[in-house]
Amino acid sequence: MNEQLHHVTLNFADGVTHSFSVPRGANILEAAIAAEMPVLYQCRSGGCSSCICTLSEGEAVTQPGASSSLLGSEYEAGQRLLCVSQVNSDCTFNLGYGSEVGSCAAQEVHAFIDSVERIASNVVKLTLELADGEWMEFRPGQFMQIVVPSLGVLRSYSPSSTQVDLPKMEFLIRLLPGGAMSDFLANVAERDQVLTLSGPYGAFFLREEHKRAPHIFVAGGTGLAPILSMIDTLRQGSGRKPRMLLSFGCAVPEALFSLEDIELRKQWLPTLETRICVDREASDGLHPGSPVSALREDDVISPDTVAYLCGPQPMIDAATQRLTALGVKPENIFAEQFVASH
């Protein structure tokens, strides 16, 4: 008996459309990869949301036994994770990124440690240099996976540097008690030691189609890393720079970091406004409260305003609610949950 095939259409944000066939009941992402569709993915298990899209036509459901990070309300609204979904009819999906984004396939590279610099009570700046002959394309905001030497475990971090800075790459990494990468960086790492990286991954990245619109960046802790990469990429671009607001915060003043880097960017970018926040012990021009509480009514002056959020999930939820109330369109809010890795 012939296998029943369903026709799947992918509508990308840049207007490009791709189609492929999926056997009834088969995994959509695996079929898309086999058909060389330029889709984003990473975990393949429903946990990271890299392959999120919106079902606009047809019937697609979560595969039996699969788990998904989607909320029930998100599922009801048509959102699907391709890696845990199957089609029960011909389907059309809308993707929130351009067709050129997913064409940059993840790859493995090697890099030498240049330095490990303690920049706050619990944060280090890791500077790497790619090995000769190796290269990595990535978009500001995406993340890499780094293998912890001798342990073989993977940890995910977004570069604070940009594509222009290659072969140098910088990462801002939070040190956690007993953490595998934390212990390595604090006690073992040496200059010229070789690390293995793979990437890029993730659907959190600077959207080229919004580069002229006002930008709001909300960062908590080392969620600042991808935000710095985005700000620098906008600065490096040609033409008029958009209005930008960076609201960045940590729990207490001694946990703050990269303040000189932020100040330098304010000097380079007259269109950049910054607010530095602490939950406790605020003084010396620091905003008392979270980066979300620093957002004001007059921060959203255009219906085209775009927002990028990176930090703990409660911060992202609060920022999304606040920005939506201030008039930012939900489809113009992009977020990356920062999960501290042990």
Biggest sheet architecture: 6 strands, antiparallel
Proportion of residues in extended strands: 25-35%
What is the CATH top level name of the largest domain? Alpha Beta
Give the second-level CATH assignment, the architecture of the largest domain: 3-Layer(aba) Sandwich
Q: Could you give the order of the helices and strands?
A: EEHEEHEEEEEEEEHEEHEHEEEHE
CATH H-level superfamily title of the largest domain: Nucleotide-binding domain of ferredoxin-NADP reductase (FNR) module
Large-scale geometry: globular
How many whole angstroms does the radius of gyration measure? 21 Å
Which stretches of 5+ consecutive residues score pLDDT under 50? Answer: none
How far the N terminus sits from the C terminus, by CA atoms, comes to 50 Å
Helical region count?
6
Strand order of the largest sheet: 11-10-13-8-9-12
The pLDDT mean sits at: 92
Strand runs, count: 19
Describe the structure.
The protein is of the alpha/beta class and 342 residues long. The protein folds into 3 domains: 91 residues, Ubiquitin-like (UB roll), CATH 3.10.20.30; 95 residues, Translation factors (Elongation Factor Tu (Ef-tu), domain 3), CATH 2.40.30; 130 residues, Nucleotide-binding domain of ferredoxin-NADP reductase (FNR) module (Rossmann fold, 3-Layer(aba) Sandwich). Helices cover 17% and strands 33% of the residues. It has 6 helices and 19 strands. The strands form 4 sheets. Strands 11-10-13-8-9-12 form a 6-stranded antiparallel β-sheet.
